[in-house]
Amino acid sequence: MAVTARHAPPAKAGGAPPSRSTPSGNPRRRAARRRRLIALVFLFPALLLLGALVAYPIVFSVGRSLFDASGDRFVGVDNYSEMFSDPATLTAIRNTAIWVVVAPMLLTGLGLVLAVLTEKVRWATAFKLLIFMPMAISFLAAGIIFRVVYEQDPERGVLNAVAVGVHDAFKEGSAYPDARARLGQGLDPRGDGSYRTGPNLAPGRTVSLGLVGVPPKDIPAEARPAAKAASASAAAHELRGVVYVDFTPGGGGRPGRVDPKEKGLPGLTVEAVREGKVTARSTTAADGSFRFSGLSPGSGYALQLPRKNFAKPYTGIAWLGPALVTPAIIAAYMWIWTGFAMVLIGAGLAALPRETLEAARVDGASEWQIFRRITVPLLGPVLGVVFVTLVINVMKVFDLVYIIAPGPVQQDANVLAMQMWLVSFGGGNNQGLGSAIGVLLLLLVAPAMFLNIRRFRRSQS
């Protein structure tokens, strides 16, 4: 009987039986997991700090905004309702909107102009260093500097010193701003700030007009004693007089009478008034004397010292007044951040393809056309990053406003960041409302922040 042989299955090429060991892809997966673990170990401290310093405060502030000032009673959205009904918070929102619209736009435009111009000057590096230098100054120091710059007193404030100098170059102020007439001596005050005698004077008389309240420093060096002018007789067709300081240095004089040591006041305007109309004008001499000639005969004349003789001197512009305090602080902020915008835009300008600019010049384009139609469009991404970064920054401005704005007008310059501090810690002691303002500020900053992140990701792709 034949026996059928059982054939073994053919072996695979190479003679090795199939292996049941770990698939070949597992070592690669283990290496990838190892790399992720190592990266996580290095990232963990940063993630821990990010969670402690950013994530936790955000979550805590959102939760705290739902409770009252004590933090014990849940009030829901009452803090948000109060926030939008509080006049101080509404003023802060309005001023923050002004900051967001004005400051980034002006800074981006100014930085673009300076970046383009510095390419055409020989000492570009020194100029950039000079413009960028304020970035090295803290906001506290910059606020103190500009608080002095904007000082109302022209003896201290630089801007008002310039303003007063320019004003006085075209229009001089009064030399006797503090002078006033001695009451009961015939020279009476009027509602418009002038002084006038009674309408009982006639040509042929000499009248003495005494003033007090003139400090010795305001008396000009050329002033002479008024006694001789007061004793001079007037002709029949003229009306004479003297304006003098009705006060004897060291005492001893009599009010209403020109004493030997009393000086005249030069440079004052005197008007002759009849029936309510000014008929003649004269200016006092070094001894305070004045004279009107050719007057019509008869009585009914009055002598008047007009208001301009006693006008207060021009002291400049109220930079830190309610109307100008916000623009003044924005100007200080621009002084600090112009260098930032210029340097970033200058870096983008240096990366522009020069062959495109040269081709435009060869084709006959003017520098303005090149700037408007080539440079600005190519710098669009850089300008966008600068603008959005500045928008985020101005929403957080606090210290400049707090330092520069004086106490009486601080509410007129208030912004959201400062209002949050004032409500929470600066006397309000309502951290529930302050947390609600902080959440509002976060919601306003978030869109600009996400836009910036999107731009960075797009630039890396």
TrEMBL record:
Residue ranges constituting the ABC transmembrane type-1 domain according to the UniProt record: 93-452
Listed transmembrane segments: 37-59, 97-117, 129-150, 332-353, 374-392, 432-453
Location within or outside the cell: Cell membrane
The keyword Transport appears for this protein: yes
Source species, domain of life: Bacteria
Family: Belongs to the binding-protein-dependent transport system permease family.
Protein name (database record): ABC transporter permease
Phylogenetic placement of the source organism: Bacteria, Bacillati, Actinomycetota, Actinomycetes, Kitasatosporales
